[in-house]
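hiii so um. not sure if this is the right channel but i have a protein structure encoded as tokens and i wanna go backwards to a sequence. like what aa goes where. can anyone help
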């Protein structure tokens, strides 16, 4: 595989995972999955605002890394922005 293709695939993976992690904890699917499948202490911990915020923060970090990599990916070889 070429280096540019691998870099583009990495950017896509980080961005897609980041968007998923940003949105998933606040969706109804998260609530129903943790209520139905984890009726224990772990379920209540996963439904807490702290855990949801932490997971969303990881998603925001992934999006930031993808954005940074994408900006470096589209620069000209001499370093000037495109």
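sure thing!! here u go:
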């Amino acid at each position: 595989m070429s280096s540019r293709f691998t870099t583009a695939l990495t950017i896509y993976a980080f961005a897609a995972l980041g968007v998923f992690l940003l949105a998933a904890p606040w969706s109804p699917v998260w609530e129903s999955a943790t209520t139905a499948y984890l009726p224990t202490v772990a379920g209540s911990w996963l439904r807490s605002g702290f855990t949801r915020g932490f997971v969303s923060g990881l998603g925001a970090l992934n999006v930031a890394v993808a954005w940074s990599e994408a900006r470096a990916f589209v620069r000209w070889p001499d370093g000037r922005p495109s």
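oh and DSSP finds four helices and no strands in the chain.
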